[in-house]
Write a structure and sequence with these properties.
- The structure is a single chain.
- The chain contains 25 helices and 28 strands.
- By secondary structure, the chain is α+β, with helices and mostly antiparallel strands.
- It has 4 domains: 139 residues, Roll (FAS1 domain), CATH 2.30.180.10; 161 residues, FAS1 domain (Roll), CATH 2.30.180.10; 139 residues, Roll (FAS1 domain), CATH 2.30.180.10; 152 residues, FAS1 domain.
- Strands 2-1-7-6-5-4-3 form a 7-stranded mixed beta sheet.
- The longest helix has 28 residues.
- The radius of gyration is 34 Å and the shape is globular.
- The termini are far apart.
């Protein structure tokens, strides 16, 4: 009897354990439990809790959840997220984040319907930098939750995708184009002009095709007859669904490449431009002694804007058109739509009208436009040119200029006119394509000063990056700047946006030295023992004779061991580095014109370097029997000027360690105090 009781108790205990085990498995496998294992998903979990359709989903089989993190929801707008997700038990909008299949990176589908009824499909694409991550619409998968189970897979995503635009419908791009005035979410967006051209040319099929594609729809008014069939077709990237986060630096062919109207061989490619906007509230990275140009608005702009760059390729290539994205990442049944503020590829404005148009200049270069208004003489010159290249400084470029710069130019209209003319190349269009062979092009600015546009390799981050490790740089009147938006086409020329005001230095010699690609070795030597700090003194004026990298390479060939200590070993040769750099720095600012009138220049170490005049207004330096030629002159800074030379003024003796003289000095001191020490010792004994 006792044995039966024991056995019955064991059976009951085992059964209880099994029930508890299955209960634990059931508890661990439901959606809320899986989401609760992630501290970064508490907001999403709380909004999902209690929805009536969760249990149905759990019974249907495998589920994939794309869950935005708390940071992503806060960035999206927490109140908006709560409103969209609803307060009732159904919360239909949240269905967009759930898929009734298991999604894996190795078997990534192109598209998949979400659990939301009537909503556009989710589109997937691989993330180039990491094969374990991928995009779902515009959101990037951060990682897979380790709490995922066999039936429930959770991916953390970095932003909240745009699911709200067509909550209860499933339209194609063509249906959106034909009915924007009837769609509540698109009230106020006018596309009548573009819709009319699509219908006129009979190309609705290009926007209604079932092939997943990327569509651009321009809003507002524009010269309708100028929009040809080929340009209309340029608003479709066929066979690629590209949300803004997926463009990268690539250029994508459009339907215009296969258009029958394309009789001249021209084709239009598009790319995405992420253009940084200056911090106009004064919170940006500015020096204390800089002021901020007066603003005409108080609202802080976004950190950047997105533009679509459409470039005409082929024999008739004349530049690019930039169209600002007004509403991005609108998913439709056959891809994604980006609403833009002007048609792609359509060149309708002159240089003057483009830079004065708030649609283009606001938060980008409107500060320079305001400056132009103070020089009617320069504006008249712009209007009379039939072919020209204008370099337009961005708001950031204008706002970092030193305090006294604009004060001087405001009071001297002649100097302002001269400054503005540094930015204009008359009767020529300098484009990026023109640099394809030579890599550089030299012209004469309207001020009569040489202007050079060249492509350089950038070892650090590129301000303007077309998908390569290079950028365009313009140099004029001693100031060089990076081209941040190139080849903006106008009816009478081309515009380049640059990050500096040409002819107006905005940073110190130290900053200038650090940014010059051909002076990287001089920069390394100058930083030894913090010698370069002298180049940042705002109240001093200096002239730096800076050896270029090729000059330092010859030092390496002649004195390899000494070069290694001087350049490649950061903790060594600080005294020697200062000795060499002092021979290349003069107190006082001497431009090229100044040097041509001098026979010699006294350097910081007390030596005088001879200046030899040559025929044709040329000159060179002579030191210790060596000849130094000037490579470039007059790189202007706020506290001086840099001249790049092709030699290093030093000898092997400069590179010998300074320990020997220090020992000799110490020995001399010991010899001097030795008698005193002996006397003290004798007295004590």
């Amino acid at each position: 009897m006792r044995s039966r009781t024991i056995h019955s108790t064991c059976y009951l205990t085992a059964a209880g354990l099994l029930i508890a085990l299955f209960a634990d498995v059931r508890a661990d496998s439901n959606i809320i439990s899986v989401l609760s294992r992630e501290s970064e998903l508490t907001i999403f979990r709380d909004r999902v809790s209690g929805v009536s359709w969760l249990s149905f989903l759990e019974e249907e089989g495998k589920i994939t959840i794309f869950a935005p993190t708390n940071v992503a929801i806060d960035k999206f707008d927490r109140n908006k997220f709560d409103k969209l997700s609803g307060d009732d038990s159904k919360k239909p909008w949240l269905r967009n984040f759930f898929v009734q299949v298991r999604i894996q990176p190795k078997e990534l589908p192109n598209e998949q319907s979400s659990f939301a009824k009537g909503a556009p499909k989710l589109f997937f694409s691989h993330y180039k930098e990491d094969p374990s991550r991928f995009y779902v619409n515009e959101a990037l998968v951060i990682r897979k939750s380790p709490g995922s189970t066999e039936s429930i897979t959770v991916y953390l995503i970095d932003i909240v995708p745009n699911f709200s635009t067509f909550e209860n419908s499933f339209p194609s791009a063509d249906e959106v184009l034909q009915n924007t005035d009837k769609i509540a979410e698109l009230k106020g967006i006018t596309v009548l002009g573009f819709r009319g051209r699509v219908n006129y040319f009979g190309v609705r099929d290009s926007f209604g095709s079932a092939t997943p594609s990327t569509f651009f729809i321009p809003i507002g008014n524009f010269p309708i007859p100028a929009l040809s069939k080929n340009l209309v077709l340029a608003h479709v990237i066929p066979g690629r669904v590209l949300f803004t986060t997926q463009f990268g630096n690539d250029h994508y062919p459009t339907l215009s490449s296969t258009s029958e109207e394309n009789t001249q061989g021209a084709r239009i490619e598009v790319s995405l431009v992420n253009e940084t906007i200056a911090d106009l509230t004064g919170a940006g990275d500015h020096h204390d002694n800089h002021f901020h140009y007066p603003r005409h608005y108080e609202a802080q702009p976004p950190a950047y804007i997105l533009l679509i760059k459409s470039t005409q390729k082929g024999p008739a290539s004349i530049g690019s058109v930039l169209s600002r994205i007004i509403l991005a990442n609108v998913p439709v049944s056959n891809g994604v739509i980006h609403f833009i503020n002007s048609p792609l590829g359509l060149i309708t404005q002159s240089v003057v009208s483009y830079i004065q148009d708030p649609k283009h200049n606001m938060n980008r270069f409107n500060l320079f436009t305001d400056i132009l208004k103070q020089s009617p003489q320069f504006m008249a010159e712009l209007n009379e040119k039939k072919s020209q290249t204008l370099f337009v400084p961005t708001n950031q470029a204008v706002s970092v200029l030193p305090n006294d710069v604009w004060t001087q130019y405001k009071s001297n209209k002649t100097e302002l006119f001269k400054l503005l003319r540094y930015h204009l190349v008359p009767q020529r269009t300098l484009t990026e394509e023109g640099l394809a062979r030579s890599g550089a092009e030299t012209a004469t600015s309207a001020a009569g000063v040489p202007l050079v546009l060249r492509r350089v390799q950038c070892t650090t981050g590129c301000a303007y990056n077309s998908g390569t490790r290079s950028e365009l740089v313009v140099e004029c009147a001693g100031v060089n700047g990076s081209v941040v938006s190139a080849n903006i086409a106008a009816t009478d020329g081309v515009i380049h946006l640059v990050d500096r005001v040409l002819g107006a230095p905005s940073h110190s010699l130290g900053w200038k030295l650090q940014k010059e690609e051909s002076l990287t070795t001089t920069q390394v030597v100058a930083t030894k023992g913090l010698w370069n700090k002298v180049l940042d003194q705002p109240t001093s004026r200096f002239t730096l004779m800076a050896p270029d990298n090729r000059a330092w390479q010859r030092v390496n060939e002649n004195y390899p061991s000494e070069y290694k200590r001087l350049v490649q070993l950061p903790s060594e040769a600080h005294v020697q580095a200062a000795r060499v750099m002092d021979r290349h720095l003069a107190e006082g600012e001497f431009t090229r014109d100044d040097l041509t009138k001098m026979s010699g220049i006294k350097m910081r170490n007390g030596e005088t370097i001879d200046i030899e005049r040559l025929p044709g207004d040329q000159m060179r330096l002579k030191w210790n029997g060596d000849i130094c030629n000037f490579v470039r002159n007059d790189l202007q800074a706020t506290n001086g000027v840099i001249h790049i030379i092709d030699c290093v003024m030093m000898t092997r003796r400069d590179l010998i360690a300074s320990s020997a003289p220090q020992v000799n000095s110490a020995g001399n001191v010991l010899l001097m105090i030795a008698p005193l020490l002996l006397a003290i010792f004798a007295a004590r004994t």
